[in-house]
Design goal:
Radius of gyration: 17 Å
Order of helices and strands: HEEEEEEEEEE
Number of strands: 10
CATH architecture: Beta Barrel
Length: 137
């Protein structure tokens, strides 16, 4: 029975990994690269009236007066409305990411805001950070 459980888990994990790979296939998605207002790089993908943040970095201010620099990735696909606008909030175990903006053929731009709760209850958050990206050549 234990062997069947492991084989079933391996099969399910393989299917999940295969599905995740299909969603980020560069041949199907249009890749965008750009910068945030904080000067960090941001990578995004657009596919079939939805977009996905692939990776970005941001500085957050903490309640104790310090700063925290985060590298964020692993986002889900966000639907894009017919007029090109998008708005979403995605939540991790300790962090929350809110974003909104607009997509067209030559540009993807908007704003992103992060909050994070560290061990010991320390909270860190950013202001709304602007970003702009163009299709990768």
């Amino acid at each position: 029975m234990f062997v069947r459980l492991i084989a079933g888990c391996a099969l399910a994990c393989g299917l999940i990994a295969a599905d995740a790979g299909a969603l980020t296939d560069p041949a199907e998605a249009r890749m965008f690269k750009g910068k945030t207002a904080q000067g960090y790089r941001i990578k995004l993908a657009v596919k079939d009236r939805k977009f996905k943040i692939l990776k970005f970095e941001a500085d957050l201010r903490c309640g104790d007066g310090g700063t925290l620099t985060l590298i964020e990735s692993g986002f889900l696909w966000t639907p894009v409305r017919r007029n090109g606008n998008f708005r979403d909030a995605q939540f991790g175990r300790t962090d929350s990411v809110y974003f909104r903006g607009r997509v067209d053929k030559r540009r993807l731009g908007g704003r992103v805001r992060l909050t994070d709760k560290l061990r010991g209850g320390l909270r860190c958050k950013s202001r709304w950070i602007r970003f702009n990206a163009q299709p990768r050549r």
